[in-house]
Write a structure and sequence with these properties.
globular, mainly beta, Umud Fragment, subunit A, 15 strands, 8-stranded antiparallel beta sheet, 264 residues, 4-stranded antiparallel beta sheet
Amino acid sequence: MASKAKTDGGIVETIKTVVYALLIAGIFRTLFFQPFWIPSGSMKDTLLIGDFLFVNKMAYGYSQYSCPFSLCPLSGRLFFSEPERGDVVVFRHPVNGSDFIKRLIGLPGDTVQMRDGKIILNGTEVPQVADGQFEETYERQGPMGHLPRCENSAGAVGVGGLCTKTRSIETLPGGRTHAVLNIDTNGFGDNTDVFTVPEGQYFFMGDNRDNSQDSRYGQAVGGVGFVPAKNLIGRADRIMFSSAGSSMLYFWTWRSDRFFKAVE
């Protein structure tokens, strides 16, 4: 009997340990970090389909999305540090609530316009410098099997062919640089009206400029529009893992050169 009681007690302790571990992991995920898989090509070549990263939910403080129950001292968002232009941010779509990841371009009070594919920020053109081409194989990518869009599609790129896009380095005020890609000449989002970012909201764009539904597009037509501060989830700082295949189990499709790569 004593042996049976000892066994039962061991099982109970094991179950308690597992439950406590899951609770701690859940709280850690809720408060500090959130895993995020890149599902689309809107942030190429900064982020590729199949990149896996952890979102730093403490980068900007607590929000109604990251702070459960009564753990937050205030409702809405309490900033520990302000979001900065150039940050790559995960946020919830203001209308449908799905998670998006884009680059922060416009801060509250900024004016943003696209003119001939260049950003006009507060009346000044954001400089771009040509940086060759981004090349990838024209094939289905990731679990959803998306085919990439190509600038050289007029050449009838077939499956297995070389898909290219013009690559430039863009420098935001303050000196932060990142790569942007171009697919279309005079594309739909290359020329826009002037947007004035409201107080408490932000303006986001994808780095793959002609393949991104972002703040250039109104929410009524499926775009992101302006994003309220309370919708910010966190900042993407580093890629932890990357796979080009439809499953992470296909080790031959792993991109080891992207493991632990900083997001710039």
